[in-house]
Amino acid sequence: MAIWTGEDGRLFLLHTKDSTYQMYADKHGVLLHTYYGKRIDNESLADLIFQADVGFSGNPVEAAADRTYSLDCLPQELPSSGVGDYRGGCVELVHSDGSIAADFRFSGYQILPYSYKVAGMPSLFDTEDEKGETLVVTMKERASDVTVRLYYGVFEKENIITRAVRVENHGSSQVALTQCLSCCLDFQYGDYEFVTFPGRHAMERSLERNLVGRTKLEVGSIRGTSSHHYNPSVILCTKGATEDEGECYGMCLVYSSNFIASVQKDQRGQTRAMMGIHPSHFSFCLKEGEVFDAPQVILGYSDRGFTKLSQQYHWILKEHMCRGKYKTAKRPVLLNNWEATYFDFNEEKLLKIAGQASKLGIEMLVLDDGWFGKREDDNSGLGDWFVNEKKLGGSLKQLGEKIHDMGMHFGLWFEPEMISEDSDLFREHPDWALRIPGREPNRARNQLVLDMSREDVREYLLERLTDILSNAPIDYVKWDMNRSLCDIYSHEYSGSRNGEVYHRFVLGVYDLLEKFLGRFPDILLEGCSGGGGRFDAAMLYYSPQIWCSDNTDAVNRLSIQYGTSFFYPVSSMGAHVSAVPNHQTGRVTSFKTRGHVALSGSFGYELDLNKVTEEEQEMVKGQLADFHKYYSLTHEGDYYRLLGPGERFCAWEFVDKEKNHALETLVMTSAEGNALPVHTIVKGLDPEKNYICSLNGNVHSGRVWMNGGLTLGSTPGEYESLLIEWNAI
Ligand code: DGJ
Description:
By secondary structure, the chain is α+β, with helices and mostly antiparallel strands. 19% of the residues lie in helices and 29% in strands. The protein is globular.
C-alpha cells in the first residue's frame, strides 16, 4: 500500500519508490505538513515542528494559554485565510454576511484504490499497467457549511504525488470563492532555489534560477492561457542542485489558463510554495449544493537532481496523461506549408510541395492557415470555418484525396477559439465575442476571442469541425490559438459572475476538445498557441504533441527545447526543419544541424523542398532514415541533458530502456580561435556492458564512458552538429 495511516487515522504517509509525503491532523484539527523528501518509515515526524511564542503571530482560541501554537508558524496542507496565518491561504471565501474568512479543520478521510479524477479537466489516469491510489481528506470550515476535500494521488513507481482541491457549499446561503489554490507545500527547514521557465512569443521557456528568501518569488499568467511568458511548471531545489545532485521538487499544474506559482520564506525561515489558479480576475459564486473543482498539481520528487525529476515527469505524462492512438502509434513525419507559403497558396502550389515531399519520404502534408472563409491575411475570416473552394480550386475532399493518392496523410489547421470582426460569424453573432459593453476591446492579431464558456458557441464549433472532417480525408488537426484573453465579459455570465469567465472559458475549451476527439478518436491532434503559448500538461491530454515554438531557428530552438524538456517529453515537442535565412532570426545554419535539432522532437519540415539544393534533398532522405532509426530512442528512451545552452556547445542524449543503445546530439553554439577541446560525459549506460562509439570506434565499458566521457577528435565549426551513437557489444 502506498498510503499508510496511523495514530487513529490522523497521521498519513504517502509512499512512492523513493519519496515519502507526510501529514498529521493535530489535536485542533489543523492538518500539519510534517515531511516531504526521501522515503522514510511509517513514523510520525510531527516532533520536528518547533513551536515558540512568536510576537504578532496570534493564537487561535483553542490553544488557550499556549502562546506557542500559531497558525502563522505551523507548516500546513491547507493554510487558513483571514484568521491568523499571514503567509497566504489556499482557499479564500466571502460569506453571505460579507465576512472574509476560511478556517478548515480535519474531519475525516477515505482511501480509494484508484486515481481520482478532476471534474471537467484533465488529470493523470490509471492504466492497465499501473493504478494509482487516492487519499481524500475532508476539511470543514469552522463557522460555515463549506467543506473542502483535499485529494492526494500516489503513483509509486514514478515518485509522483498529485494534489487537487474541491470546495463544496453545503449551506443555504451563497458563498463567493475568491481564491482556490490547488497546492501548498510548506518546508520547515532548508534553503531552496526556485526554478522557473520564463519566455516570450517565439522565445519560450528559458530556465531561470532564483534563491528563495523572504522576498516573494512569483510567476504566473493572467492571459487566459498558460502562456509563452511563464510556464505552469516550476521546481524547488536545494541550493546549487545540478542535473545529478540535490533534492528537487517539481510542481506541474494540469491547467491551461491563468495560474500562479509562488514561493517565499516566512519570518522563521520556513519556505511556503503555492500553486493554482491565479486569484486575479477570479471569483466563483457557490450556491447551496454547488462545488468548485480546482486543477491537479503533479508533484515530483528527485533525490538525485534535475535529470531524474525530468525523466519521472516525461514518463508520467507520456503514460498517464497522453491518450489515444498516437500515445503509442508512430507519429508521421509531416511537412507544414506555413513557412513555405504563408497565405499565398493554391492547389497547384500545395500539390507541388506535397509531391516533392512525398518523393523524399515525408508522410503527411499539413495545410495551415488560410484555407477557409475570407482569409487572405490574418485580418479576417476567423470563425467562418467553410472551405474556400475558389482558392483551393476545388473541394477539400479532392485536395485531401490527391494528397492521399501520393501516399501521404493530410492534416488541417484550425483556430476554433477565435473570431475576426470581419467575418460572417461576427456579423451574425457579435455577442459571441468576449467584449465589455461600452468599451472598445483590445485587438491582438486583429482578432477577438470567442466566448468559449457558452454552449451555443461550442455547439457551432463542433458542428463546423465535424462537417469539415466528415467531408474530407483528414488525419491530423493543428489546433491553434493566437492571442491572449482580456476584456473579459460574457453575456451568459454577466453581472457579478464575470469572475468565473476565465475558468469557464478553459472548461469550455476542454469540453469542445473532448467532444471533438470523441467523434474523431484517431485524429492526431497537435496543440499550438502561436507556437508554445499553451504548452502545458493539460493540453497533452488532448494533443500528444504541441508546436513548441513559432521560432524554428535551430540555435534558438536549443534553449527552447532545453527549457521545455524539464517537464515535457521530447515526443511532445513539435520541431521542424525550416528554410534559411531563418524567418524569425535571419540566422543561417546548415541543413544538417537543422535536422539534428528537429530530430529531438515530433519531427517535421516547414519549407518548400522544391526550393532547396539537390544535395539538401538527398539529405532529407538521410534525415528520415535517422528519424526512423532513432524513433524509439527519441520517443521512448530516457532523456539526459548533458550541457545546456549558454555554453560553447549544447549536448543531450537518449538511452533506451535496455541500455543497449545511446544517442548523443551535440551542437556548437559558438566558435573560437585556438579552440579548446570538446568533451562530454556519457550518461545512463550500463556500467557492466561494453559499448562501441560511432565517432571513433573506441570500445569501453559503460563505467569508463560514464566517468571518462568522450573528447571529440576535432572541434566542429560554429552551428555545426554531430550525432554520436553508443552500441552495446
Ligand atoms: C501561429 C502558429 O504557431 C503558426 O505555426 C501558424 O500556424 C500560424 N499561427 C498561422 O496563423
